[in-house]
Amino acid sequence: MSLLIQRPNRQAHTLCDYHCVCSSATEEETTMASKRVLGFPIGIESAALIAVLIALINLSQSIFAEREPERPSSFEPFNVSYDHRALIIDGRRRMLVSAGIHYPRATPEVGIVVVVCHKRLDPCGVWIQLQALQQNIDCVVSEFSYKTASKRDSVRLVWKWILEWIVQEPMWPDLIAKSKEGGADVIQSYAFWNGHEPVRGQYNFEGNYDIVKFVKLVGAKGLYFHFRIGPYVCAEWNFGGFPVWLRDIPGIEFRTDNVPFKKEMQRFVKKMVDLMKQEMLFSWQGGPIILLQIENEYGNIEGSFGQRGKDYVKWAARMAVGLGAGVPWVMCRQTDAPENIIDACNGFYCDGFRPNSYKKPALWTEDWNGWYASWGGTVPHRPVQDNAFAVARFFQHGGSFQNYYMPIRTSGGPFYTTSYDYDAPIDEFGLLRQPKWGHLKDLHAAIKLCEPALVSVNNSPQYKRLGPKQEAHVYNGPEYLNSNQSRNEIACSAFLANIDERNTVSVTFRGRAYTLPPWSVSILPDCENVAFNTAKVSAQISVKSIEPGLSQPSDSVRSEELLLQNRDSSISVDWKTMKEPVGAWSESNFTVHGVLEHLNVTKDTSDYLWYITRVPLFQNCFKFVASLAQLLTFGRWVKVAQPVDLQLGDNELAILSGTVGLQNYGAFLEKDGAGFRGRIKLAGLKSGDIDLSASLWTYQVGLKGEFMNVYAPDQQESVNWVDLSSNSISSTLTWYQLPHSASYFDATDGIDPVALDFGSMGKGQAWVNGHNIGRFWSLVAPKDGCQETCDYRGAYNENKCAKNCGKLTQKWYHVPRSWLKSSDNLLVIFEETGGNPLGISMNLHYTRTICGSVSESDYPPLHRWIRQSFIHGRVSISGTTPEMQLRCDDGHVISDIVFASYGTPLGSCQHFSTGHCHTDSSVSVVSNIKRLVNCLWACHMRMRAAEPMDLHQYRLVWEGTTVLLRSRMRRLDLIRVDTLLKRWLLKQVAHCPQTQASFSYDGTGNRCSTYKLVVLPPLLYCCVCQIDSSSW
Questions:
Q1: Could you write out the DSSP letters of every residue in 268-306?
Q2: How many other CB atoms are found less than 10 A from the CB of residue 824?
Q3: N or C: which end of the chain has fewer CB within 10 A?
Q4: Are 847 and 889 spatial neighbours (Cβ–Cβ below 8 Å)?
């Protein structure tokens, strides 16, 4: 949803009065526009039915092995090079903004989608952007005819159009689209070696690891791709991305001049480069890949290896370039990067960064727009004003490529929370974080307006000192001209910075006065008018809510129009349970003398390892007993003393060692281990301590429930589940199952992201329908360390502006909707320390409250600026009217107006109050936006003859709540779909090579297994049905 509020001519005067008008397309206009956009006739009196069969399937490579690789259609082949100023793409210098999306941390699309469209112009439609398809499907016909009760219509399916639009819930296409909308030119990701090669020589490019599909989705959106192959990634990822089997290669030393390591590294890097070539994904092949990276932040540890480290850097560069990828290579945080490798910056700020050679441009490969959280710690937060300040300063000082580190979820690294939200512009649920996303979007638009001027300067920009802590950089150089650009057409753009952390300062620049807030940068695309200031946030504020989700049985009648999220969300009381045995449970255990290192035994096939030994004790030999050992916790080896209860005679001592992710950072990772180190002994005996280190120990890898796959839907019949009793609650080492028959765990309606509340649990892991949603651990952050107010001014670090003090570090755990079925979902939990599953609830995560503000002193919106062209780069502004733009989450509408006031309102979002001047009609006028979706709402202040006053002190503020719109599906919408349409679909699928398909469909024609109402541009309403694709 989009809300636009405009103010009138600045010369007029107003006395707290205004008028708002809502405009939307008429039915006739919409119908005609639909004809133009969709390219096929739509009857005025009858419904138009279009069926699009899309197989979103993770087929093995063998299915398409005989096909020619499909070339991404968004690009013609182009070359990429660079000079000292910027990357040069297709012959032009470019200023580029990038968004980092780690593809394994999100979910690709799944299933078969049937779209049933009709011309009904329902005023409560939902605009859902359709996403791009990148599968090798060639079996959709160009025309389909069907018969309705009234007449016969013909609908033409344009295959190119089908490739460009597809309904998506999860998560790759949505993240890519939102990144592009936010101003990104590039998507960046690592390659995750341990995911792609879990067993040496056995590769995995399916599901979340389908890197080819991900890159093609990026290209289909018209974005470039930066592939950071590494293969070391850090990324708070398990073992830094290295497969654990790598450490078992004889004589290997990671990331140094070591022959076994270099051999394995080259083999994997070559595999990834060759795969990209085979799929024609490099720029010179017409693909989106413009940049590659070898190694990752090696400069941080290079000194640990001495000369061997320096030799390794040179080898890695030669090896990478020698693979013939045809695009530039990068090393980040590598001041001694060889001449043919661009060294890049990572950090919170990079405005002071300079490459190690004049011939290289300044690239910022990781802009840390937040930080990660560790179990038991606070949650980091970085104010958007500071993030924008850092980015603007980078481009002000000659930067040309900047990437937001935006990894989404599931860290997997040592003692890091499952949430890897990172306070990024898009949160781990895939929702926009406002105002961060909106403010940075405006920043990117301002930088793009300056791009012709930024690339025109061949040397340093003009510098002018404006004050003791104020400076200007002016880009207006004639040295570098794009073709056909005359000198008098050169654009001029300027950055005015105030690095004073406390004081607002007035400066004079080119004869005009400018006010600079503290710790801010003003951007002047035309060297005269301010388009953006990093400290003045005009983007909406969105307050997220996690509320109880509805869980209706799949056969219930859905007559409500709005999804009201107000019911008890407890999943069920009908839990089943199974105790995990203590100690050895299978014949796979083994016994040896001595204490073995955890990882050498488990090979990371499980978090868990049992250490079991026997201790014989005789009468009167002990007064108190404690087991003493040294174990690894939170990255440090610590001494642990644990009281034990022993009896006379033989005692079995069983110790469960568990990892919480493997070390991801530092030198000598191959030597890092887990579990116990040093001696294990019994202390407190009258006869003295007993050293157990050399005793006979039995080792059992993993849990019995793990190796039985008790979390897999197809294994439930083989598990001896019993009903949960009161004495089983809060017990340790216990499996819990919410069975298929529990209708309380039907998937919630709508499209809002789903979260499970594990606040009542202790520590363990959870699976939904066989998918691991991650580790949970209910540790509480310290009560101290959070500030009442977050001051954006001054240099940021990960401890500044922390939040969530005194609360669980993580309570909510994201469950991607693509993992859920409409009903009968299976939830399995392993609890280590004791928890109460009756307290688990399923909740919906969405933007509940939206606040907006606009005043006479605001800058004009960025879309009012006009750039004639990239070549003729002068910019101008077509109007100076400030605007307020509001948007809901996908599928939501404004349900209530909580507050509205034009005049001198007080307070902040969720705490507004009226000031000394207030327009009484504010709420009634603003209420016009309720229930309007995708409607441009223009608010014009009505002029009245009144006493003169300063318009700049008046503003309009608005606060509203949102709710998810429910589609009103009728039997007519799906009538005969299960007959004529299904037969047609099956007939077409039969032409797909090496593929068989069958459909599970509600034969009554009443409803699909899941559905939602969508709108194809502009306002063609569709019912979208998700059909079971398990047979593909």
A1: HHHHHHHHHHHTT-BGGGTSSEEEEEESSSGGGTGGGGT
A2: 16
A3: C
A4: yes
Q: From CA 173, how far away is CA 160, in angstroms rounded? A: 18
What radius of gyration do the chain's Cα atoms show? Answer: 31
* 8 A C-beta contact, residue 843 and residue 763: no
**Catalytic-labelled residue, pool 169, 302, 366, 451:** 366
- The CA distances from residue 168 to 90, 818, 1018, in Å, are 32, 10, 18
- Distance (Å, whole) CA 592 – CA 87: 59
587 annotated active-site: no
Spatial contact of 689 and 682, defined as CB atoms under 8 Å apart? yes
What's the CA gap between 927 and 493, in Å, rounded?
41
**How far is it, in rounded angstroms, from Cα 373 to Cα 365?**
21
Q: Enumerate the H helices of 190-258 as residue ranges.
A: 193-196, 211-220
The reported pLDDT for the residue numbered 641 is 79
DSSP string, 963-1000: EEEPP---HHHHTTIIIIIHHHHHHHHTTSTT------
Q: What is the DSSP letter of 25?
A: -
pLDDT (tens digit per residue) in 730-761: 889 999 998 755 434 666 667 788 999 999 99
Sequence-distant (≥ 6) Cβ neighbours of residue 65 within 8 angstroms: none
Nearest to 291 by CA among 81, 30, 590: 81
Helix (H, G, I), strand (E, B) or coil at 376: coil
Q: Identify which has the larger pLDDT, 871 or 225.
A: 225
What is the tens place of the pLDDT at every residue in 640-696?
A: 778 888 888 888 999 999 999 999 999 999 998 888 877 888 887 877 888 999 999
Terminal CA-CA length for the chain: 36
Q: At what angle do helices 307-321 and 259-278 cross, to 10 degrees?
A: 20
From the candidates 197, 264, 295, 297, which is the catalytic residue?
Answer: 297
Calpha distance 967→495 (Å, rounded): 48
Give burial (CB, 10 Å; 0-12/13-18/19+) of 522. buried
Quick one: pLDDT at residue 856? 80
* Cα 231 from Cα 835, distance rounded (Å): 39
Helix (DSSP H) and strand (DSSP E) numbers for the chain:
14, 51
969 pLDDT above the threshold of 50? no
DSSP state string for 440-479: HHHHHHHHHHHHHHHHH-SSPPEEEEEETTEEEEEE--SS
CB 335 within 8 A of CB 357: no
Query: How far lies 117's CA from each of 328, 954, 973, 1013, in Å?
Result: 46, 46, 8, 10
Q: Taking each helix axis from N to C terminus, what angle separates 172-181 and 211-220, rounded to the nearest 10 degrees?
A: 30
- Residue-wise pLDDT for 753-802, tens only, equals 899 999 999 999 999 999 999 999 999 999 999 988 999 999 999 999 99
32, 121, 692, 936, 1018 from 25: Cα distances, Å: 11, 10, 80, 10, 9
Q: Are 170 and 109 in contact (CB under 8 A)?
A: yes
Closest CA to 415 of 75, 819, 763: 763
How large a percentage of the chain has pLDDT more than 70? 70
φ and ψ at 680, to 5 degrees?
A: -115, 125
Average pLDDT estimate for 1001-1015: 34
Q: Is there a catalytic annotation at residue 366?
A: yes
pLDDT value of residue 985: 40
Place of tokens 């998700």: 1026
Say if residues 381 and 801 touch (Cβ distance below 8 Å): yes
Q: What is the 3-state secondary structure (H, E, C) of 389-449?
A: HHHHHHHHCCEEEEEECCCCECCCCCCECCECCCCCCECCCCCECCCHHHHHHHHHHHHHH
| pLDDT attached to residue 895 | 82
Question: Amino acid identity of 876?
Answer: S
